[in-house]
Amino acid sequence: MRTHPPSRKVIAVLAAALLATGVAACGNSDTGGSSGADDGTITLGFSQVGAESGWRTANTTSIKEAATEAGIDLKFDDAQQKQENQIKAIRNFVQQKVDVIAFSPVVESGWDTVLKEARDAKIPVILTDRSVDSADKSLYKTFLGSDFVKEGRLAGEWLVEQKKAATGPVTIVELQGTTGSAPANDRKKGFAEAIAANPNLKIVASQSGDFTRAGGKQVMEQFLKANPKIDVLFAHNDDMGLGALEAITAAGKVPGKDITIITVDAVKDGMQALADGKFNFIAECSPLLGPQLMDLVEKVHNGEEVPARIETQETTFTQEQAKEALPNRKY
Ligand code: AHR
Prior knowledge:
By secondary structure, this protein is α/β, with parallel strands linked by helices. Helices cover 43% and strands 18% of the residues. It has 11 helices and 12 strands.
């Protein structure tokens, strides 16, 4: 086969690519240190909340797969739902001079000191899934994640519609997520705001089940003992709702009929419970943040401007919609 010398057009394209690489490398110099990879590979330090729920497992898989796909060197840390572990992990990432730090903060408060340390080391930080309550927005580049208040509101609005004909009190129990976490605070707020539209809807008990199945089961058992009449359960995630199903069945009640169950997430097990008629409604919270996160990591590393807030696109599911969506549900 005859080979041709490279055309002028090809040479120009190669030269432009080389120039772009050089510019990017210069741009990186003040976005932080480098953990040592001289081949241009970006190193991302990521501190995950833990493995408390099906949502979290799907989120971890999405992040790991997307990092591999993007050729990003991921240093992954599991904080086991403890803020002190996340602070330690972020300090380690700073010491290792990773290029970018991303994390999903287990709770909203108490991050300013460690975030200032990352900023002083010129390492850009991205918040993913959950946000922090820091007044100083320069401590992080962007926040990628859901609108948790909206999720709670959508759950509450659905209930208001279902119970619009109620003439007497409708008693609601609430399984909150991890105390102090953004999704627990915000979903509670959104739900309370929405149900205020119908004075018959009353929350009679509200307690944390820590976003876990075991927590949901245990707290629901207490709710059932203390409250002879429970009409509705609002669980801040599917896993707590799934744990609560066991307690409800053990108490001789039929989930989805005797007690209306509303949850958040729409992971496969939750969608199955909804399709089976055990749950009544789910407000979706998408865990598939990996690809968008890697895109942001590359952009902030290259010194590009990114929006301060990127909201995840989500929907809601009724029992009928869950039946349709289940066969294609990936997580
Ligand atoms: O921050 C997202 C929440 O955390 C999910 O709703 C829950 O399942 C997870 O543990």
